[in-house]
């Protein structure tokens, strides 16, 4: 009896390896996914392969918030990621292999694939109920960044929005565990492992050095941001990313302008929201205009870029 391998079975664009041992391809037997090397077994959820090793990220979300998040990801993909990728890559005959790490609702995969990138999205949270509605569900996979089901040197480009702060925390909280640095280091190492020599990494998240966290803990109609003590280890600064990725073997870690990342879609709907978001929008513009300000404490949101040496 010949069990099909998972890559062929779901028509994934890249080779899928066992996330536990990273030695062998996985095979599908009935509703089970099995590794012939370490005998790990995985399953499916809504026809999506579930290759999560360890705990699932407990980020349950209400329907309305989920749709808003989908809208934000669409906006950031069209107005920030896509132009940024086009600026930093040159396209040959073969499409670039792109991984969205922590792809959330997965809308970015549809948009970038339609623009000619060969994309793959992974997430280990609870956004997958929108995945079956996506145009390219065969490019989405439940997996976690610390144990990626990919071979070494698979991707030309990996990007993630606000993933690192949520690594090494207690549940979906802002409280880090004793081993948060080790876990963030493992993620950096794993990203470098699956990126090709000469490939690129892009990481975005709120800036630890900025006194307010405008991006966490806010719900609809609430305009008050979370106070952020710059010494609190939940968020990262450009320097924090630099330490992790230099240790992972990279040579240069730079901050990019962040203007365009956030469309302020919700606050844009009311006059009050527009007024309250005005100072933040101004900061985005100001810090984006000068290179020295990109990663500085004036910037509420940082985007870190790494071009790996060949
Ligand atoms: Zn295995």
Distance between the termini: 43 Å
Give the radius of gyration.
19 Å
Main sheet properties? 7 strands, mixed
- CATH fold annotation: Rossmann fold
Order of helices and strands: HEEEEHEHEEEHEEEHEHE
Structure, explained:
This protein has 310 residues and is α/β, with parallel strands linked by helices. The chain has a single domain, classed as Rossmann fold (3-Layer(aba) Sandwich), CATH 3.40.50.150. It contains six helices and 13 strands. The strands form three sheets. Strands 7-6-5-8-9-13-12 form a seven-stranded mixed sheet. Strand 5, helix 3 and strand 6 form a beta-alpha-beta unit. The chain is globular. The mean pLDDT is 90. Bound molecules: zinc ion.
List the helices and strands and how they pair.
Blueprint: H1 6-10, E1 27-29, E2 32-34, E3 41-45, E4 48-50, H2 63-88, E5 97-101, H3 107-114, E6 118-123, E7 140-142, E8 155-161, H4 180-194, E9 195-206, E10 212-213, E11 226-227, H5 238-247, E12 253-256, H6 271-289, E13 301-307
Parallel strand pairs: 5-6, 5-8, 6-7, 8-9
Antiparallel strand pairs: 1-2, 2-3, 3-4, 9-13, 10-11, 12-13
Helix pairs in contact: 2-3
Bound molecules: zinc ion (ZN).
Zinc ion binds at residues 18, 20-21, 23-24, 35, 37-38, 40.
């Amino acid at each position: 009896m010949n069990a099909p391998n998972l890559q062929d079975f779901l028509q994934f664009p890249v080779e899928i390896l066992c996330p536990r041992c990273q030695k062998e391809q996985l095979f599908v037997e009935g509703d089970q996914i099995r590794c012939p090397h370490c005998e790990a077994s995985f399953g499916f959820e809504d026809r999506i392969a579930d290759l999560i090793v360890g705990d699932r990220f407990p980020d349950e979300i209400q329907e309305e918030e989920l749709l808003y998040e989908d809208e934000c990801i669409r906006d950031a993909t069209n107005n920030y990621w896509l132009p940024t990728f086009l600026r930093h890559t040159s396209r040959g005959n073969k499409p670039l292999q792109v991984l969205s790490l922590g792809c959330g609702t997965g809308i970015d995969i549809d948009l970038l694939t339609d623009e000619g990138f060969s994309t793959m999205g992974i997430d280990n949270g609870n956004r997958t109920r929108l995945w079956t509605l996506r145009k390219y569900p065969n490019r989405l996979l439940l997996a976690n960044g610390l144990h990626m089901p990919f071979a070494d040197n698979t991707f030309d480009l990996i990007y993630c929005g606000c993933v690192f702060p949520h690594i090494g925390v207690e549940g979906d909280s802002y409280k880090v565990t004793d081993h948060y640095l080790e876990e963030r280091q493992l993620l950096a190492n794993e990203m470098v492992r699956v990126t090709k020599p000469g490939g690129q990494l892009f990481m975005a998240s709120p800036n630890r050095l900025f006194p307010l966290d405008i991006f966490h803990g806010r719900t609809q109609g609430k305009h008050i941001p979370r106070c952020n003590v710059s010494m609190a280890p939940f968020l990262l600064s450009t320097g924090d990313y630099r330490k992790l990725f230099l240790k992972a073997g990279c040579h240069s870690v730079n901050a990019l302008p962040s203007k365009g990342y956030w469309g302020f879609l919700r606050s844009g709907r009311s006059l009050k929201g527009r007024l309250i978001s005005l100072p933040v929008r101004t900061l985005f513009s100001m810090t984006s205009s000068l290179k020295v300000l990109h990663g500085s404490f004036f910037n509420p949101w940082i985007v870190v870029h790494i071009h790996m040496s060949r």
